[in-house]
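Anyone able to model this chain together with adenosine-5'-diphosphate?
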Amino acid sequence: MRLEALIYFDILDKMPEKELQSILISAAKICQTPIAIITAVEGNVHHIKSQIGLSVYDIINDNPFFDKVFNSNTFTEIQNASLDASMANNPTVIGYPNFHYFAGVPIHSADGNTIGTLCVVDQNHKQLNEVQIELLDNLSKNITNLINLRKQNKNLQNELNQLLNERINQTEIDLEAYKFALDQSSGVAIADRDGFIKFVNDKFCKSSRYIKEELLGQSYNILNSKHHDKSFFQDMWEVISSGDIWHGEIMNKDKFGNYFWIDCNIIPFLDRKGKPYQYMAIQQDITEKKATEERNNLEARLISILSENEPIDSAIRHIAEQICFKLQWDIGLYWKTNSQENTLSPTLYYQFTYPHKESMRLEFLKTIFKKGEGLSGLVWERKKPIWIEDLPSEPPYLNQNIAIDNNLHSSLLFPISFNNEVLGVMQFFSSNIKKEDKRILNLFEFLSTQIGAFLERKIAEIELLQAKKDAEESLKSKDQFLANMSHEIRTPMNAIVGFTELLSQTKLDENQLEYANSVKVAGENLLSIINDILDFSKIESGAISIDQTPSDVSQVLKNVYDLLKVSARQKELEFSYEFDKNIPQTLICDDLRLNQILINLVGNAIKFTETGSVRFYAKLLSTEGNTHQIEFSVVDTGIGIQNDKKQKIFERFSQVNNDINRKYEGTGLGLSISKNLIELMGGNLEMNSEEGKGSEFSFTLNLETGFKEKADTRSFSDLKNHTDIQPKILIIEDNQLNQKLARNVLSNLGFNVDLAVNGQIGLEKLRQNSYDLVLMDLQMPELDGYETTRIIRNRMKLSIPIIAMTAHSMIGEKEKCLAAGMNDFISKPFNTHELFNKIVSLLSINIVDIESKNELDTMDHTHSNDVLPNMSYLHELSEGNQVFENELISLFRILVPKELIL
Ligand code: ADP
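re: yes, here you go
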């Protein structure tokens, strides 16, 4: 009740003056009084709440009339205050302002309590009529209504406020909960529009390992790990500065230089204009997740490196690189074990992020540990990975001075083992303290054997390759030896055969003639074997090349026929050849090699045919433009070849029937050589044979039409007749036979010749005289041709042309000569025509207008078994000088047997 009254008083008290004033004006007007008053009761005291017409209303503040109205609780009127006992002595009645009239009605609250009064006062006597009284009463009720409305409003307001407060409280609680949750789960940071940090929560501090004060006011850059390139941050900046939320993963760097990964949302806070004024980053630390990802990734990557067929060094390097990159280590080393010496030595130093220190690298690379010594030696001994978090706090025996001196802290090592044997140790260093990670250690325990198996496989591969290379080398040197030997033997063999032929033409008794013939036959056989071996080894070493010269193919067939008709006749075989007339006369081919092939095939046919016939032919199959497809075929009615042996006959040294071959002889090389030569010419040797009936060997070649050039048949004698020059040539040669030969050939060609019997004398002569050209032997004792040439070129600084003479025609020989400073190269026994041409071209002598008079034979020194028996070569060399020929023959008799023994 009391409280209620208070509330009403309060309401009435706080009612806006404007509303009360209009009521007071109405009351004064209705009652026609100058004064109207509203009082409110607080306790027992009336306060004038509002009034009109009073100038000093305080005076009537405690006017008993208000109590009267209040207490009567109904309309009360004092028409003449001087006559009213309660008012007659009131100062406002007795004195100024001399009130005489009072009337008033109580003001009630909605629940019927009286809370104040509405009174009118006048200085004159009067009396209100009923209407006035009723209207005054209505006005009082209006006030009640107003108060009531007010009260209701107030209640509503209160309720509203309460509601709002509750809401606010709830929101605050919720917000607090959200904040708690956010703080628990996420790092939060707020940065201003320029990226300077304004706020960070604890979690943010925890993952960055900074304290709040160290971060506030700093640029966000403080966390930049440099892992992402500039465009990454540019893109992010573009998104957030345009007001959008950015989401992504970032690798940051903490206070101590360790990297950590965050999954981050950056939310821009926008001002009224929609421009960001700050950015809030809400982030989760995903370092662990990333590490797992990276570990899985690393495992997959390392396994893929191992499966790629990389050489060991680069595979190890890639492994180190991946481990450094994916697991954030700064430096990687690979220590290789040497189980014989019981040592570990570094074979790889890989640097990832660490600033390069050459001195450290060099120090590491020269450190060698024994088993059990140093960290890597310990890993070797224990065969287990080791993780050291902080090297300086480890015992000094671990011998990690280099690392410690260079501020490296953590180290991870794991062995690379195969079959429980450690092949090497991988070691990684970090300049930060990295906490031991069991999962990584487990991973490396697993990878250790994988990498080991890879290394073992690789080492086996390398050994295999080396073995293959060695085998090839030894094969090559065998071929080289064969080639050299056959070449060396061939020269004197040619002479043996030739001189035996000469011998048999002298007067001999029957026995002597038979012996001489036997020597000749044996010599010829030997020569043919040697030629085969030489060809074969040349083919093997790739030294053979096919000449492409205009040739008369019909002549080739005729030569073969002429050469072999005697043996065919001896066996009473029908022997014939056919040459298709449609084949052009001149075709581009290697006629010597074609000759060789046909001699082998036709020779075999005769050899393996006892009765019947041997025939061979060349047939034009087709012509297209300039190219003619020609089939060459050799057909016999001989013993044929067993089916199961057919493949074997093309293999080198293969003779398909040893028993038969005892009878027939041979090397088993002919077919292999022929087959290879045909293939080099672009054809394919085919065979058709039936045992007991005969065989056919055939091949097809595509040959182009050519025009035979007029052979260059000029001699220097011709040249001599047309010019005054007589170039001076120095022959440096130690072999007397060759000296004679060369001197004679060159003199015959019209050159002025001088001789030096070894390199030393050659140099002496070159110092004292002037020459136009040197013909230099290569194989000389003490100072050989190469060395002599080097001295001529490098010390004497002479540019005189030098032609090398050698018995070798091996691959690379010419290049060796040229590298030593020689200008050209000719093989012995030399072809006069070739030697002449070479000299002429080196002396740059213009002989274009000289007509040829004297034809020089083109000598074939590789297929000479059909030319050597006659003495044309000797005659050509001597140009018919009998004295010279005799001299040469006697020299030959003395020297060749010695050379053969050698
Ligand atoms: P060889 O020097 O032994 O003749 P080849 O390589 O020329 O070596 O021939 C290899 C082997 O092939 C011969 O030993 C022989 O057994 C067989 N052969 C070659 N040609 C014929 C042929 N026309 N008839 C029968 N057998 C042949």
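The chain is about 45% helix and 20% strand.
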